[in-house]
Amino acid sequence: MSSIEVSLKELPSMQVVSFHGFGAGPEGIALTAMFEWAEKHDYFKLKNPRCFGFNNPDPTPGSSNYGYEVWLAIPEGMTVEDQSVKQFEGGLYAVANCHGNVEEAGSFIPSAWKKLVEWVENSPYQMGKHQWLEEQVPLDGMTLPEMNARRKINLDLYLPIRK
User: Fold this and answer.
1) Topology of domain 7-162, CATH
2) Is pLDDT at 30 greater than 80 in this prediction?
């Protein structure tokens, strides 16, 4: 097993605005809707914007279609009336980072998830039942829209765990 740097983090409960895509490339569908909404609401100009995503539903054998959901954390005091809002309960996570160019994401993201799962399997923790997440994290002083325009990805992978 290749090594992977893992940290433990407790994500707090938070309200999120949700965007969903379904098809052979659902990430692009969900992210396009999210970036359009975020621009309209100056979301990425807020202090500490957070963007999470995950498969919903997962891919199934024999079909190229699956879903992807993107969440933007809603800061306290922000009201959202034009998009679906959900409550995320938070939880304990094993977290690892992966990054690269969008064109290579189909290789480096699954590889990092595999290493993170192997880490948990060989740790004193067990898999949790709360939501697996990928958080898009700004890189090299860029905003997420700038990273998107430059086709760069920097993800913290959140694997739910319990003691």
Assistant:
1) Multidrug-efflux Transporter 1 Regulator Bmrr; Chain A (3.20.80)
2) yes
